[in-house]
Amino acid sequence: IEYSKPFDSSGQWQTTYKDNGTYVVKLSVSDNETTVEKQITIIVENVNRAPVLEPISPVTALAGDFVSLPAIASDPDGDAVSVFYSDPLNSDGTWQTDANDVGTYTVTVTATDGIDTTEKLVTIVVNYRNLAPLISIDEVRGEETDRIVLEPVIVYPEGDDFIVVYSEPFDADGVWVTDYDDAGEYDVTITATDDKGNVGSVVVKLVI
User: Which of 18, 67, 105, 115 could form a disulfide with 95 if both were Cys (CB 3.0 to 4.6 A apart)?
Assistant: First the structure.
């Protein structure tokens, strides 16, 4: 028994992804006196292969950062590939975070050739951005011999501890007992430093 190509001498053929098509194969059978031939039609159907997404590493960002998640996709069959991202990413795989976006997100990245799809899950962690304390205080007025106490409002989003320092003539507690010679205008600096070294300050006008 003999087989024409692409079959081997045993009548076997290991197809590949490039072998789709119609083939006419000749089969010959001989007893050394008489040979009989027959043609056989073989149809190898196309098998679509799904796109391939390269590994995507988890992303860690700070609130307010611009996050970009570029995905690299290819198709083993050479087909055009489209990539889609789930929320909170935009259609181009980007996201402008803000202070309210702190948390952990699982994003689905999908690559498709229009027939089959490939998906990968990617973790995005958005952490707090350590901000300096915010200090607010209105103009302060008093009279000579008054005991002036500065009472600034200090807001710190992360809730860390902070130390407050007042410039002269106030003491460490923000207190100044004025005298008869202290009339005038003063610019007093109030500084708050958190335990991570971030500093916030404000200058308040004091009129005696």
Answer: 67
